[in-house]
Amino acid sequence: SYVLTQPPSVSVAPGKTARITCGGNNIGSKSVHWYQQKPGQAPVLVIYYDSDRPSGIPERFSGSNSGNTATLTISRVEAGDEADYYCQVWDSSSDHPSVVFGGGTKLTVL
Amino acid sequence: QVQLVQSGAEVKKPGASVKVSCKASGYTFTSYGISWVRQAPGQGLEWMGWISAYNGNTNYAQKLQGRVTMTTDTSTSTAYMELRSLRSDDTAVYYCARVGEVGAPMDVWGQGTTVTVSS
Hints:
Chain A is mainly beta and 110 residues long. In chain A, 0% of the residues lie in helices and 45% in strands. In chain A, a hairpin with a 2-residue loop joins strand 5 (61-66) and strand 6 (69-74).
């Protein structure tokens, strides 16, 4: 089955840029979606189809995907961005497509 | 506004079954599917499966095959997830989420339902 690998944690100072990676075999050939989850809350979609941003998500959130790595970039990080972030793809390699999540990355704002 | 509202918390004994509901509003229910995702305490997100609200087609995670059943009631715009033969490691928060076609993101999530399995 398809595996997505994320770093367990990323730390960044306020106002700086955070980059959260999501590794997978030839992930550049798949569409990647990213979710933000704050403690005690449901996940929220922040980036879809690699780099599109839902309405209401700040322009500071952006995404890219190429080769074996997809990246979520958060510019001008704010304290309110502190959360867990998950990448997600659909694995359509079998007759029964399935969803795969990365293990999640905890973003800490120093 | 588009929203998914889930049923309340459940406490079950090992071996029992649980059925969680997810009521949709603010959009055409049959134009989307519903995915179910769970999260054990302190752990990441685990996909359980997907159901098309259009035709009832389902796709379950291999790990849960035989123990999970997902259904929809289009008359009430409600999706259901039933998990049988509960074990302690089924203790988790269970989420429903709206999904378009295969490949699409989960763009709207329910608030979550806590299921605790304990003797």
